Amino acid sequence: MSIVLGTPGGNELESLAATLAAWQQDGGPIQLHPGDLGWYSMRGPEATARALRAWSRDGELLALGLLDGPDGLLRLAVDPKLRSDESVARQLCSDISDPARGVLPDGEAIVEARGAVTLQHLLLTRGWQFDQPWTPMHRDLAAPVPDTHVTWPGLRVEVIGPDRAEAWMEVHWSAFKGTPFGEAERRGVLDWWATMMDGPFAERGRCLAAFDPDGRAVAIAGVWSSGRGRPGLVEPMGVHRDHRGKGYGAAVSEAAAAILGEMGSSSAMVCAETSNVGAVATYTAAGFTALPPESDLLRPS
Q1: Is pLDDT at 150 greater than 80 in this prediction?
Q2: Residues 122 and 188 in one domain
């Protein structure tokens, strides 16, 4: 049977996430995770489905890609049994490289294909280049996570619900946007949060916030399960710009690992830009181990 490329419908998201979850392996590469779909789903289920590209053969999913944003970034997962399969790699390479196939637009593009060594080799022969390195971070959860890094007096970390969604999103906005959090932004991000937490991946996720002694939210994290006995993902983690340098990032990261352990995850994982030494140091302080850096692949414009 030939390999078929398609864009799934919104009614297929849960089954795709289940297959993607089964592909997650301790000791394997940090590839596209159900949590990545969960975080993306704040745009809504139909938009999430439109951003996916699925490769299948005889009804069996072989690879799944997420077009993450408007900048030509494809985040990819390949069935672990097929990462070295030449026919699968050649089909993926052909579809990724040809704008007419509807995977990536013409011009500059980036592919995140960790562990797919045969595909990486084929893309490099077509003129793609290694892009900036990312550092995979891993924490084993075979034993309960000790509460050692919540060192700020009076700091508490809690799983939050809709009643505190505004505080969570305000910290996220500060950490990643850094622009004023006005009324329009407030309404928009609360809609995003509600859409995500009412969506098809909600049961896999938890939102955590760290509160200082004055009750202010100072750091946040999201965690996502791929099921019992499989690696869970921390996505995202951020500290409010007014409260950095106090250990809050390590505290909320450690709490995130603990929650994943309670959800049955075998390990906690996250990937940080290698150039972001602060992020790597934060996760290391929270008990994560840095693995050798891996690079995305870039097609120059």
Answers
A1: no
A2: no
- Report field, pTM of the whole predicted structure over 0.85: yes
Residue 297 falls inside a structural domain: no
If one counts the domains in the chain, the total is: 2
The domain of 153 spans: 139-292
Contact call for residues 202 and 193 (beta carbons, < 8 A): no
Q: 83-94, pLDDT tens digit by residue?
A: 999 999 999 999
Q: What are 268's strand-pairing partners?
A: 139, 232
In the listed set 65, 97, 132, which residue is the last one of a domain according to the structure?
132
- Answer yes or no: do 203 and 121 share one domain: no
Residue that terminates a domain, selected from 86, 115, 132 = 132
